[in-house]
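REQUEST FORM: STRUCTURE PREDICTION
Request ID: SP-0412
Submitted by: Lab K.M.
Chain count: 1
Length (residues): 149
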Amino acid sequence: MNQPGQGRRQLAARMGPTAATVAANLRRIRKARGLTVYTLSDKVEEAGRTIHPAAISKIERQERQTTVDNLMALAAALNVTPSALLLPPDDDPGQTIAITGAGPVPADLAWDWVDGARPLTVPDGDQGTAKLDHLLHSRPPGRRTSTEG
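STATUS: Completed
RESULT:
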């Protein structure tokens, strides 16, 4: 028999560090925009997606995960890039960001990866193959240009 609150604890245990980052960023950006969960819900619905205010609150409290469709709708309603929800607002190379499936990564590298500028990992001794492969499979043809030297 489940004890009270056990389901929430199990969900929180399954959520990775990216879910925690999305929760914190959603709350921070929503408040910076002066929006309540109700007004944000209304903005999302005006764009054709339904996310109830209670669901937004649960995402912010890490009691509910969001889908990729809802993440995109929330980013659009907040007028930010999806990466603004996915990564902390810090690109200091001295700081690390925990990324689900990758572990701790320097903040500047994480942002470059999410922005499509470079692969997340480059093998030692790589002569540029990893970056070319990344550009080939991560960017549309018209955007396959290098932003780094």
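NOTES: The mean pLDDT is 90.
Reviewed by: T.R.
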